[in-house]
Amino acid sequence: MTATVTEQLSIDQARSYLLKRAKARGVQLEVYALRNTSTNIRAFAGEVSEFKLQARQGVGLRALRDSAWGYSFTENLAQNALDRALDMAVENAELVAPESGAGLVAWAEPPALDLYGEGLSGVKVEQKVQVALDLERTAREADPRVTSVPYGAYMDSDSETLVGNTEGLSRGFKSLQAFHFVAPLVSENGQNKMQRDWQFTREFTELDPTRTALKAVEKAVALLGARPAPSGQFPAVFSGGCLADLLDLFSPMFSGKMVEEGKSPLAGRLGEAVASELVTLVDDATLPRGMNSRAFDVEGCPSVPVTLIEAGRLTAFLHNAQTAARAGTQSTGHAARMGYQGVVGVGPSNLLMLAGKTPDAEVRAGVRGVLVTGVSGGHAGANPVTGDFSLQAEGFWLEDGGVAHPLEVFTVAGNILEVLAGIEAVSDTVEWTPDAVGAPAVRVAHLAIGGN
Amino acid sequence: MMLDETLVSDVLTLARAGGADFAELFMEDTVNTTLRLHQGELKDAGGGNLFGAGLRLLYGTRVVYAYTNDVTASGLRDLASAVASARGGAGEVERGGAGGLDFRKVKVTPHYRARQHPLTAAKREKLALMRRASGAAQVGDVKTVDVNYLDRVQRVLIANSEGLWAEDERVQSRLSVSAIAQDGTLRQSGFYGPGASQGLEFFETVTPESIGTEAARIANAMLRADYAPAGKLPVVIGNEFGGVIFHEACGHILETTAVEKNASVFADKFGQRIAQDCVSAVDDGTLPGSWGMVNVDDEGMPAQRTVLIEKGILKSFLVDRVGEMKTGYARTGSGRRQNYTFAPASRMRSTFIDNGDQTPDDLIRSVSHGIYARKMGGGSVSPGTGDYNFAVNEAYMIRNGEIAEPLRGASLVGNGAQDLLNIVGVAGDLSLGQGMCGSISGSLPTDVGQPHILVSEITVGGRA
């Protein structure tokens, strides 16, 4: 470590430099580079409480030596740091076990997607600050039972993704996101409830903080007066957002990597009925308004929509180049990694269960049971290896299809495949989560509830 | 020295040109290694270099934060100008005298020094440790074993406009095993992942074999388990990682980031009874070599041992710089952040319920119908309401004071402040477990811990 830091290259220069050095050394190399600038503004009690400007970039390297991958990454883009990163990737490749199906590909051209819109260049900082302040103030003043608005923020992000490899591939895309969310805390008769609402867009001018704030307060207030939930098996309706959260937790079941490692309960079931005929599930990275839309995946493979479950039948898994080669199929363009850190695995983009034909209100018609509007604790309480879940839940008690009263914190437990197989009705409206998963509301005949 | 003193002084002065009361520079150069063994073969080898700097300005208690990977002199000056203008026009800094800052070097005394430093140990040595763990996990019905190895060396410089200058090196090593037992269509996983702020010598005390064996034991024990019942029941929670329940349900709402927003149910309970006499709880950054050890926090303050609850009475919150300004409680060396991309916030270090005077057997014998949650999984809490949830990775029925059949799929839900009062028995077998804690300033290594405890009733979410 020295007291002077040498000049840094741009990510584009770093990509070229690394590929040139790799070719000179006879190393097959893939470079994945990201550059992101973003603004994050939090408001509390009528003032900006936090203002964050972020500029981050780095390169992820993947070297291929005798069918073995070695990884490394660096945020220091000085030439000597890039050389070190290349050395490390090669050293790692020499340690790792060879993999069948390992290879670098110069993929066909990706689709032309506009994920950038008008950009944020014309938007002043003051306008962004105003969004954060409006969110907080509107939520605070919406109802006397709002005691504070602990969480509320405006965020935007302007990013560029580059991929290149020594087989001649070189491509990139830019994307833009503007987002806000708010979580007001409401209180009545010693009960505290907090709910969140949010909005995502690629055009700043579409943001509507007032609507978001009012909706968040409405959702929180609706939970006041909660009574204990009973314990036992009951008919249940999952809201679209709640089902989307469940599908998100269990999306690893569809990963070709989890399948080949024996960690998916769907392994070996391609072509079989795994869900109710009412269920059709797709993953589509090309949706113009999808939060996880992209023209190509982290290997540079072009994006195309993939149908995972069609009318209840399992039709495909998600694949990257290597898992596809081993499964005897083509990459679906779902190579994924945690930025330039981490390793290339498989992951969904925009995961969507298609809407059905039943009007939303009719999905719950006649039900005496629970309406589950949210689950939490999924990182520990949902097991994608087995499909089992046991989660904290929130929601309402339904009598004859109508909301009777909100419920105190309760649990829901079951198995995702049993839930999907037991779906009796599917609403005609899709709800999206901030994690880019969309689903309609559904009704099931039985769900295990833990309450008093 | 990571950066030249004159440059740092210039950057801090430049950053305050818009009228900020306080400026702080945090620079880091972190090298990590990640290895994954699947079925005895090294499948992934990675790691790299996290490298960047963050600048924090305070205008009163308002925070402006900016960061960059361009840590050249011009890159840092540009960052300082950007951060100053982000909240510009609030006035001019008083320029008392012409000189720069006269930095007051904080002598950072490490609580522990690594003997086998991860940067000098060969990858083959690390691989050998993983193979030992993998072999030990291949027992009983275990069919699939994954071993993950992680080490991290984070070098940091923290300097601020009050003249503070602190440098530190943080070393961490962790080995975790995930074992899946399978019999026909039955499948269960077991996980164990201890870690420490130590070099590879950590695995002399906690051997790779013991880590593999424990993961396999849980998977095998749970393979033929029945579903847990649902409803309110008395629960005995195991020691070590069982402490995650206190971490989530109470620890987070004792952080000033929650208290200052009035988003904590404990905000107005200072000095008051919030638990039974048998409960004392501590957050300690000074345990030598512990996973949650902090030589200096990420605001440059030496870490300390903080008694949170003494015999049921709330004695302290966890306080960072901004938390102190907003709540008036003195800083506790709890300002932490994952890396330069986060502004620091009040966070836990090693947080545990202290020893009581009963034995685990006493607690189990006192329950006629309930649950023994021996190994907890992860959990989370909503800071506004204190509502929490936890997965239980290894659970058993307790019938007439005896441990009975294994149970799967149990989770515990409840409310932190209410359930804290329901801890009615504490044993004397305190032990710590390691986890990553995610919150507003990122994901941080923290220890959780406790002796065995008895909670008079918790909502159990099963499906039987």
UniProtKB/TrEMBL annotation, chain A:
GO terms for cellular component: cytosol. Keywords: Hydrolase, Protease. Gene3D superfamilies: PmbA/TldD superfamily. Residues 121-224 form the Metalloprotease TldD/E central domain. GO terms for molecular function: metallopeptidase activity. Residues 231-451 form the Metalloprotease TldD/E C-terminal domain. Residues 30-93 form the Metalloprotease TldD/E N-terminal domain. GO terms for biological process: proteolysis. Belongs to the peptidase U62 family. This is Putative protease.
TrEMBL record, chain B:
Gene3D superfamilies: PmbA/TldD superfamily. Residues 23-86 form the Metalloprotease TldD/E N-terminal domain. This is Putative protease. InterPro entries: Metalloprtase-TldD/E_C, Metalloprtase-TldD/E_cen_dom, Metalloprtase-TldD/E_N, Peptidase_U62_metallo, TldD, TldD/PmbA_N, TldD/PmbA_sf. GO terms for biological process: proteolysis. One of its GO terms (molecular function) is metallopeptidase activity. Residues 231-462 form the Metalloprotease TldD/E C-terminal domain. It comes from the Bacteria.
